[in-house]
Amino acid sequence: MFSSKRARAMTTGIAVIAIGGGAYGIAGCATSSGTTAASSSASSSTSEHANGSGFSLAGGSGSGGGSNARSGPAAGGSIGTVSNVSTSGFTLTTSGSQQVTIKETASTTYDKGTSQASASAVTTGKQALVLGTTDSSTITASQVIVQPPSSSKASPGGQTIPYSKGKSGSTQQVGQIPSNYTQGSGTIVSGSTADQATAAALSVYPGGVVDRVVSIGNGIYEVHNIGVNWPHHIFVNSDFQVVGAND
Questions:
Q1: Coil, strand or helix at 119
Q2: Which of 224, 174, 217, 160 is nearest to 194 (CA)?
């Protein structure tokens, strides 16, 4: 039964990503960076950043128009404070006050800091980084990292602007925006590549939910961020370093 899972440790292959002064494991095979072709058509800001699920997603006027198309639920994640723990999952509250439903499965793996742990490490009040498949306000977790090491990596500038109903998104642009970047283009990635890009983006710009990672060529990934007014697009290089962000 799943309820017994919180009492036993999990073992898995680990690919390590450095965050600030420490490092923690990103579960999965390092070669499992499978891709799915993204649609070339872009959604409008209204459909992209708001839906009928009860999850408040940023967007609307001033949000910079459309954004990368997606093909159903995709690899992503979020970081926040654990609440409402149950035998099947928990709720994550981001620093931007977004409520994210986390579903755990028999294959979910756990870490505490830089060490492997069990599901019992997930307790109310702890900070957790969750990686997995994002579908709006729900993430089916492949890996949960409790108390992830804090980041001291250089930021290209700017701070996350939390979502506020009726407030327009910022047109701010910081760092390096790839010259070949066009909204709605690229290839959705998964596996450890998506996990490491997601972790890197959230270490610099926490507060939202990453619902997909898109390869836009030349070793650059666009990490799509929802549930905030800014940034919606975070750019990460092949070394999983954040290099820029915009709306």
A1: helix
A2: 224
At 53-107, the pLDDT tens digits run 334 443 322 333 334 455 679 999 999 999 999 999 999 999 999 999 999 999 9
Q: Give the bridge partners for 101, in sequence order.
A: 91, 138
Q: In the block, which residue shows the tokens 């990503």?
A: 17
Residue 188: closest CA among 15, 72, 78: 72
The string of DSSP codes covering 144-179 is EEESPPPP-PPP-S---EE--TTPPPP---EEPPPT
Work out how many domains the chain is built from and give that number. 2
Task: Measure the CA–CA gap between 203 and 245, rounded to whole angstroms.
Answer: 13
Entry pTM:
0.78
Could you tell me if 227 and 110 lie in one domain? no
Q: How far apart are CA 84 and CA 186, in angstroms?
A: 37
Q: Are residues 200 and 96 in the same domain?
A: no
Does residue 82 sit in the same domain as residue 140?
yes
| Nearest CA among 118, 79, 120, 73 for reference residue 102 | 79
Same domain, 104 and 13: yes
What's the whole-number average pLDDT of the chain? 78
What are the contacts of 45-50 at 24+ separation with CB within 8 A?
45/169, 48/226, 49/226, 49/232
By residue range, what is the domain housing residue 126?
A: 2-31+77-146
Q: Which of 117, 146, 175 finishes a domain?
A: 146
